[in-house]
Predict the 3D structure of the following.
Amino acid sequence: MATQYNTRPHGGVDISARPACRQDRAAVRSQRGAALVLVLLIIALLMTLVLEFDRSVRLEHRAAGNYRDATAAFYLAKAGVAEGRALLMVQQLSGSTSDNLTQAWALPGETPLGPGMMRVSIIDEERFFPINSLVSGNVVNVERVAQFQRLLRALQIDDRLADAVIDWIDQNDVALPDGAESDYYALLPTPYRAHNAPIDSLEELRMIKGVTDDVYTRLAPHLTAQQSGDSLRVNLNTADPLVLGALDQDLTPDLANRLIDSRPIQSLNDIGSILGNGPLASRLLSVASVTSNFFTIQAEGVVNGVSKTVIIQTTRNAQSPLWVRVPS
């Protein structure tokens, strides 16, 4: 095909004209560029979908693995609870006349099982001061209050806190001089009522007037919320020096350490030979013991870094635990 030129009136040639084929080639190149961009966009989209699918599969695989490990860890923890209860029964069948910290039940255990690990610890609840013993049948136990106040002073906590704890537990709404009843708690920014019943958990102490975080941190490790009357005696073989010293005004730190150095104490009849026969030894017979019946068993199962814990509180001969807690 002959190339067409535009001529000027004076015979010149219009050199600005372009061959038609060049325009066609430019259009083709433009279409190819658009197609390339579209292909790249599609590839990028596919890559995004593939990566997202891969991430989703990995997450599901990991979640399935975590669920498997958590289930295995939970059953390891349950097995640990059974082991703890068995240790307590074996101790009873051994014929020992005392419960003390040298025995197998009191020693933390760690047992490898397959890909996992089982850890068991048993805490004697009767080594602590029984906070609910301050009130018995809505009657204040004056002797126990005196013991609690001695413990507070030993911990450098204002002993007037005892009034607030008594008001929290007793069933009436008459506040003691330094206590607080529901009318006080009703005026707080987040109002609530006094429990007017035995404390269910030591965490409940945080709700009582005068119990700051600092007070709770110092006090709680020496208390138990065990409510049974059988737990009103403190085990001389397991209690710490501060709890021992709170049992009697004449039980000085030196005498408390003498008891500790004499462990394990096999019988209450041995107190006289340790402390000397006298009024102190006689008074301890009514508030102390060398055996325990209430225990907390904490068992942990660990599998591939996943941990599960089961905590129960039980008596030595209980067919079923008093309560069970599985922390999340």
About this structure: The chain has a mean pLDDT of 87. Residues 138-221 form a domain with the Ribonucleotide Reductase Protein R1; domain 1 fold (CATH 1.10.40.60). The radius of gyration is 38 Å. The longest strand covers residues 294-303.
